[in-house]
Design a protein that fits this description.
By secondary structure, the protein is an alpha+beta fold. It is built from 14 helices and 18 strands. Helix content is about 50%, strand content about 15%.
């Protein structure tokens, strides 16, 4: 009986002394000497925490600098690609390709322009700067002198009166006989967005400056300083001259400010530019929390024993469940498409750090693969919008541009004209001369239409087969008829032989339609009207230009219809 009773008491004792109770008892035995040791070691920990916080901030700043390098590298890639296109074709064709192929996933690029050797903008993704003279801009001159990629200092754009920086790449770097320069405007807002993660850190300051010391980008809490000199920041003015005059990729210095605070200031140069990322660390602010800990450590010693039991009871949950929930939450965010989600392993128990690092590495690889896939899709989209035979936009590219110009004309209440152009007796041409000559004929026609489109700020495309189209924004019916006649005459003046044609040369028929876009009409109506006019031109004997309708009336949709 005594043995049974003993066994029962032993079972009850085991239940009473479970893992939580054992942890609580152990904590009570250890906490008092540990707290005393903590008070003595906090002073040493202060220096270690300062070094760790400074290192983390510098690593974060380095990643920010790498992001800025990536932004600049993407701008350089776009400029070099455009320069290759400009070097390999006429300015008209270059402009068409430029407008059709500007990537939409680079929002920091505001505009891309091709500037002639005289400093005047020849073509631009945005029409407003065409004709603007930038020959006096230092970055333009430097690009032509060095024949290399140039990234400007802070400046105010003339047309839009907004701060930005400019990037330039000379076409002469590819073809020494070319004098034009490809220029892109880079918005400062996007450069500042990449520094958002540097904001809100007590004691840490970071800004990006140009070669003259003007602040280009800053975190949200310092956004008001953009455009001002770095000398307005006392914490950084001491290193300004060293950073601007140094040719080294990075540097640092330490000093004691007038208020007695110890400051460490360093800089990192943005590769390929004169810009630098400058960082400042104020030791007194960084260590403010641990200084308060030292003062309150003695008070904590008196109260810690009262709370240690509760802490031991929930310690297991805190040490195991919360880290797992944290990593699970980050994994769910990543699965929902938040590709920047990462596990902050600095707040995890050391046992979870290898797992967190492995997850972050996997997430980084997946994000990189997704970016590469998006870039490939963008290139395929551009290729899918270009007709390789004529060098013009294809039907898909034309439809996209028509929708855009329709909306723009509707907003500005301006007229929009369309020319549908068909090669006369082209089937007989192919039957007589063969398909290779037919392809060569379409190529010549594409080059001619590209030149006419450039001269009239229009957009030329190959609609299909031997049919072309020419979109003329902000153009009325009379002017559209003049352009149509110019197209017809230019094609006939090519004098491409066509033995089976009554004109003994390749000719085209042109159908013209004009409209004032409104909510009632649709872009397809304009195509149908121009196609109907083309049909009428064919029936009038070909090699002629016909406007849609004999009496020009405007219905509610704004379309010129037959009376």
């Amino acid at each position: 009986m005594s043995r049974v009773a003993f066994s029962r008491k032993r079972v009850k004792l085991k239940k009473l002394l479970g893992i939580r109770a054992r942890l609580a008892l152990l904590a009570l035995l250890l906490v008092a000497p540990l707290m005393m040791e903590r008070v003595r070691s906090l002073d040493g920990t202060r220096a270690a925490q300062l070094a760790q916080a400074t290192q983390e901030f510098r690593e974060l700043a380095e990643r920010t600098a790498e992001t800025q390098r990536g932004v600049i590298a993407s701008v350089a890639t776009v400029l070099k690609s455009t320069a290759y296109v400009s070097a390999s074709g006429s300015i008209a064709r270059s402009c068409d390709v430029l407008r059709a192929s500007l990537p939409h996933n680079l929002p920091w690029i505001r505009n891309v322009m091709v500037v002639g050797g005289d400093g005047r903008v020849q073509c631009s993704v945005m029409n407003a700067p065409v004709g603007l003279d930038i020959s006096d801009r230092p970055y333009f001159r430097k690009a032509r002198e060095t024949r290399d990629f140039v990234f400007s200092d802070f400046l105010i754009a003339r047309k839009i009166d907004k701060p930005m920086v400019m990037a330039a790449y000379p076409v002469s770097a590819i073809d020494p006989h070319q004098e034009s320069v490809v220029v892109a405007g880079v918005t400062l807002d996007w450069m500042s967005k990449s520094m958002t993660r540097l904001s809100g850190r007590a004691g840490f300051t970071a800004v990006m400056i140009d070669g003259k010391g003007t602040i280009l980008a800053a975190p949200d809490d310092l956004a008001s300083l953009i455009g001002r000199s770095i000398d307005t920041l006392p914490a950084m003015s001491a290193i300004a001259d060293k950073a601007l005059l140094s040719d080294t990729p990075e540097g640092s210095m330490s000093f004691t400010a007038t208020d007695g605070a110890r400051r460490d200031v360093s800089f990192v140069r943005i590769r390929g530019t004169e810009a630098r990322l400058v960082m400042s660390v104020d030791e007194s602010k960084v260590t403010a929390s641990i200084d308060r800990d030292i003062r309150t450590a003695y008070l904590q010693l008196a109260f810690v024993c009262l709370f240690v039991l509760l802490g031991a009871l929930i310690g297991a949950e805190k040490l195991l469940i919360e880290p797992i929930e944290t990593m699970t939450g980050v994994a769910k965010r990543f699965g929902r498409g938040e590709r920047s989600a990462r596990v902050a392993h600095g707040s995890l128990p050391s046992e979870f750090v290898p797992l967190a690092r492995a997850f972050n590495a996997m997430a980084a690889q997946l994000s990189q693969r997704e970016r590469e896939m998006l870039a490939t899709n963008d290139r395929l989209t551009v290729m899918a919008s270009i007709d390789m035979l004529s060098g013009l936009a294809n039907r898909r590219g034309f439809q996209s541009r028509l929708d855009f110009e329709w909306m723009k004309a509707q907003q500005h209440r301006s007229e929009l004209s369309l020319l549908m152009i068909d090669v006369d007796h082209f089937k007989l041409y192919n039957d007589t001369y063969g398909h290779p000559e037919g392809d060569a004929c379409l190529t010549r026609l594409g080059e001619t239409l590209a030149g006419i489109a450039a001269d009239n700020l229009g957009f030329a495309a190959r609609y299909g087969g031997e049919e072309f189209c020419l979109l003329l924004p902000n153009t009325g019916a009379l002017r559209a008829m003049e352009v149509g006649e110019a197209v017809r005459a230019a094609i006939q003046d090519l004098e491409l032989p066509h033995a089976t044609s009554s004109h003994k040369a390749v000719t085209v028929s042109v159908g013209v339609a004009c409209t004032l876009p409104s909510d009632v009409g649709r872009p397809g109506d304009l195509i149908e009207a121009a196609d109907a006019a083309l049909y009428a031109a064919k029936h009038r004997g070909r090699n002629t230009v016909v406007e849609h309708g004999f009496v020009r009336l405007v219905d509610e949709a704004g379309m010129a219809l037959a009376g």
